[in-house]
Automatic annotation (TrEMBL), chains A, B:
Belongs to the MoeA family. Pathway: Cofactor biosynthesis; molybdopterin biosynthesis. This is Molybdopterin molybdenumtransferase. Keywords: Magnesium, Metal-binding, Molybdenum, Molybdenum cofactor biosynthesis, Transferase. Residues 179-317 form the MoaB/Mog domain. It comes from the Bacteria. It comes from Actinoallomurus spadix. Transmembrane segments: none annotated. It is an enzyme of class 2 (transferase). Its cofactor is Mg(2+).
């Protein structure tokens, strides 16, 4: 059997980064910059006021105090957005708002709280030194500076940075679009009645949501039966529009394992047994030389765990991000765990973060069909291949589920 | 000045949970259950096979071994989705696929790997005991069990659980819809040229993305100038469709502080100074008895920090989730920090997580207009009100930015 690390390495070795797209700023959220972004101008673009107050010559107010205030003539108002319309000469000042450009001649700002707030004349009760409450052009960023290197993932703060340098569109590797397909004649849409032998399709819903959680854009390509032509047609239809295809079911040893049947020999598809539990039967390959296809096992817990272990890192690699699994922490077991050895075991568990030391409690129900234990877990305990027995209090690696 | 905790408590005290909506399963992602969900049937609904193989009477194969294999007649095939069509009598078995219902009479599954794979007759080379590779009805969940309590946030695993119990629609407190409005005559849309005194609007883009990061649905209500009628009209227009409104700018001491001007006296709006840096001028209240309105300060770093400290917890409270700020960790300072005291200081910083001990390096540029430092940070150091000096190596609270 293939090791988990080997299978992941093969997947990542086959993944090429998505071609960059030019997207409007709001749509670029979650994308990864495919160009370095530089500031076209200084930020701030001009010297401006950090306060609502008066733009003065510091020399004029150097002696101002509560007991001997200074009175200056007010030339007028400068609001944010105005051009620096006034020249400040000795004895004169301008009322100025936060963010408004510093008028020529002025070299300090006196906040309105230190004054009587006058509009024709103003009385100032405290002194200010040159530069006081002035934000200088370029003190955030100078023109030409790279504010965001290529490879930056765009979160809210980075979107703000792009807007601040005037970018309305930006070249990014977009969030991957992932089509998710369930296979199985036994599957019924939730909301419809189930007959004998039937169950509701859960994988296509869970995996589509998992794609969102991993930073992609998931869409359900629905649930198809075990008819080879229908399965192949559905996959082929998605090849043009999806960046990734995920299927669930139909890959083990059965006489009706339709996914394996229709995809074997296509593109670089390979079907393998990976030394892990759950998640043993795995398939992966590129179709049309381009689209990574993951054929995950049908058992719902197996499909979910396989997603976190293989698909999530691959989605990140498509964007050029480090191909990490979910965040890993160390935690102490609150109960013993046994593992067959020779395979990597992922156990559903509840992690209780605590300062200093986390604790993790394995769920009782560890069957790959037991979705209740999964849906009430927040973590996966990772038992390495060479470990068979862990005791209460032992420290283990734990993947935090999103 | 008001303390941060007091202001947050006032906000949370005013927030009422959003009314529940019935949403289709894929749209419910990120919502919070407003009903407990129970299983209408057992899961699995019927005894079924965990393996591709043969459904047998354990007694028939009790003596099977490599050296003395047992041969049974194969009554036919049972695929997943089939009804249990055959009765298994002594000497007979049925070929069965993973997930297919166990036929009457059978009490064990022999995997195909232990057999010659025959279809009319099959030769079995290993013994099996009763219950072997059978998944019993109800061993995941019994009918009537609450699988997800009200108050559960719906991530991928929970969406899977809902589908598994057949739910196509579900009652949730949805992700809050948040309208984000920038105010300021100086603001220009990114992509347009800036003239003297003008800057590009960044807050409306950054805050809209921050809403998404916090689990809401953000939409830009655009950028308006300092015209009171226009500002008020834009806010009123959004009251009907938004669950929350966020404005930026126009709330400090200026003669043109339009947001404060138009909203003062409306609903429960209050404008206050909060003892924090950045983020001193804050406004909050309910309009129309229903819609929380946050008027954040215009400086981009102030708006962003205020969002994390006040708006994010409030968005969570609207869904009935614990009103937490971003995840807090403890880390050691790599450089000294001074703070004015009497206010809570949030410093932009780079957190380097490490096993055992995290390190955090404060950015040099801590001005509330310095977006470059923010966009290259991943954390906020929190310096409490009563602390003025911290030294290299001191341990501090750090908010991890999303
Ligand atoms: N002889 C032999 N038999 C074997 C194995 C082997 O080594 N040898 N390996 C195991 C393992 S070992 Mo594991 O990961 O370590 O737990 S998965 C695994 C499994 C993979 O089988 P596969 O062909 O992928 O899936 P199938 O379509 O058969 O479904 C599998 C189950 O999942 C349900 N299911 C499907 N789709 C959905 C959906 N959308 N929503 C909800 N449930 C769904 C479906 O009803 C069925 O109960 O086969 C087993 N059989
Ligand atoms: N006398 C006195 N004056 C004071 C204070 C005081 O105590 N006394 N307090 C301080 C503090 S103290 Mo701080 O949080 O601790 O750093 S904010 C703060 C500030 C809040 O002022 P406000 O009225 O909210 O905002 P305005 O519209 O004036 O803009 C503010 C800045 O932000 C820019 N800006 C606006 N919108 C956007 C946008 N969408 N995109 C990009 N930039 C934008 C805009 O150009 C301008 O430079 O006033 C100060 N002035």
């Amino acid at each position: 059997m293939k090791r988990v690390d080997e299978h992941l390495a093969d997947i990542l070795g086959a993944i090429r980064q998505l071609p960059p797209l030019e997207l409007a700023l709001p749509e670029s959220y979650g994308g990864v910059l495919a160009e370095p972004v530089t500031a076209p101008v200084d930020l701030p673009p001009f010297d401006n006021s950090a306060m609502d107050g008066y733009a003065v010559l510091a020399a004029d107010v150097a002696a101002a105090s509560e007991t001997s205030p200074v009175t200056l003539a007010v030339a007028g108002d400068i609001a944010a957005g105005d051009q620096g319309a006034y020249d400040i000469d000795p004895g004169r000042c301008a009322r100025i708002m936060t963010g408004a450009p510093l008028p020529a001649g002025a070299d300090a700002i006196v906040p309105v709280e230190w004054t009587d707030g006058g509009t024709a004349e103003v009385t100032i009760r405290r002194s200010a030194t040159p530069g006081h409450y002035i934000r200088r052009a370029g003190e955030d960023v100078t023109a030409g500076t790279t504010v965001l290197p290529a490879g930056t993932r765009l979160g809210a703060a980075q979107i703000g940075m792009l807007a601040a340098v005037g970018r309305a569109r930006v070249l990014v590797r977009p969030r991957p679009r992932v089509a998710v397909l369930s296979t199985g004649t036994e599957l019924v849409e939730p909301g419809e009645p189930v007959g004998p032998g039937q169950i509701w399709d859960s994988n296509s819903f869970a995996l589509t949501a998992a794609v969102t959680e991993a930073g992609g854009v998931g869409f359900r390509a629905g649930s198809v039966g075990d008819d080879p032509r229908e399965v192949l047609a559905t996959i082929e239809e998605r090849l043009a529009s999806a960046d990734v295809i995920i299927t669930s079911g139909g890959v083990s040893m059965g006489a009706y394992d339709v996914v394996k049947e229709v995809l074997s020999g296509l593109g670089t598809m390979r079907f393998e047994k990976v030394a892990m539990r759950p998640g043993k039967p795995q398939g992966f390959g590129l179709l049309d030389d381009r689209v990574p296809v993951f054929t995950l096992p049908g058992n719902p817990v197996s499909a979910y765990v396989s997603f976190q272990v293989f698909v999530r890192p691959a989605l990140r690699a498509l964007q050029g991000l480090p191909p990490e699994p979910p965040r890993t922490v160390r935690a102490r077991l609150t109960a013993p765990v046994t593992s067959p050895g020779g395979l990597r075991h992922y156990l559903r568990a509840v992690l209780s973060p605590a300062e200093g030391e986390h604790h993790v409690a394995p769920a009782e129900a560890q069957g790959s069909h037991q979705v209740f234990a999964l849906s009430s877990s927040n973590a996966l305990i990772v038992v390495p291949e060479d470990v068979t027995d862990l005791r209460t209090g032992d420290t283990v690696d734990v993947l935090e589920l999103p």
